[in-house]
Give the backbone structure.
Amino acid sequence: MTDPIDVLDRDGRRCVNCDAALTADRDPDASVWDAGERHSGAEMVTVCADCAALLDGATPAWRDRLAADPAAGGMAFLRTVTKTQGSVVADVAALATETTGGLDDADVRREYRDGRRRSALGLAVVDRHLAAAGVERSALDPLDFDSSAVEHLVSELVLANTDLGQPTVEAFENVLTTAMALQHQLRTVLDLVETAVSVEGRCHVCLESILDGDPCPACGEPARTAERWRDATGELDTADLYRAITSHLETASETTTQLTDQAASLADRLAV
């Protein structure tokens, strides 16, 4: 079990999500977010009070601004989500590069663990903002997500309850549906990257050596299943797995470009 103070010291006592410095009186136990709930330093990250509250279900600050100034609230949502997702895109792409290039170097392994933690935190933060904007929780579950039915996954557009015009509300919905799709694509790439790490004989969380698909002896994480990547002879086709990582990463890149264009269109409408 990792001591939260060690996590805070590793992260420079700054929030990994927003880079805010922790106050001197901040409780270490309340300042750590644990993606896997295994109390492993490989998954624990430092979070400030505001980000910790958001992850626990608090209403985002931008939504509180909607009643008095819908345009300002909408812009704050847009800035937060696009910035956070942009960081996750960069981290996931780096993870893919590091994994396909090999994880033998100690610095590369450290960068992998850091990037994986940041990615998990960023995805969780974006989920909270999208849920506050009216996205159905099922749309944020990678197991339930159906990209062909995204029009049914927004239950109540928060901007629809403001005095902003219908074109602005529709532009907002476009951003939400594309951001949902990008969340799913990023999680897909991350899952494939973790599978590749597991196939190479390492725990995809802490990178300790694992044998024959057994759980990690260090953190207890089960090995990723790789059955779908076996060829007709039963041998693992790692080349096909790496091609899938590249293909899904390219799709995520295309979606990122689409989201950037939609966000710019919405920002123009909110600025009027």
Summary: The chain has a mean pLDDT of 89. Residues 14 and 97 are 27 Å apart (CA to CA).
